[in-house]
Amino acid sequence: MNKQLDQFLGELLQQAHPTALPKPLLDKMKADLTLQLDQRLHDAILLALPEADQVAYQQHILQGTATPELTSWLTERIPDFSELTQYVCGELVRDYLAVCAE
What is the domain range of residue 37? Predict the structure, then answer.
């Protein structure tokens, strides 16, 4: 997990759970949120990409080439890629905090 994502998820969990969580539970929750975020971003990217680029994107994913080159490639094809990722992250935060509040 990259440092920014780890920090983002740590802050989210701290906001949702003000009391300290045991490290194994915290790590599991971060892993679960990372999977949710990955799936949501994947779905949003597929919706935003032109149909002709969707297959190439899925090939990148299948080959495990989620690299800076892939991010650059996506930025070229989705003009508002940064805003898209921020929106998806915001939705994850909103949904997670809503579930925690129940």
Answer: 3-101
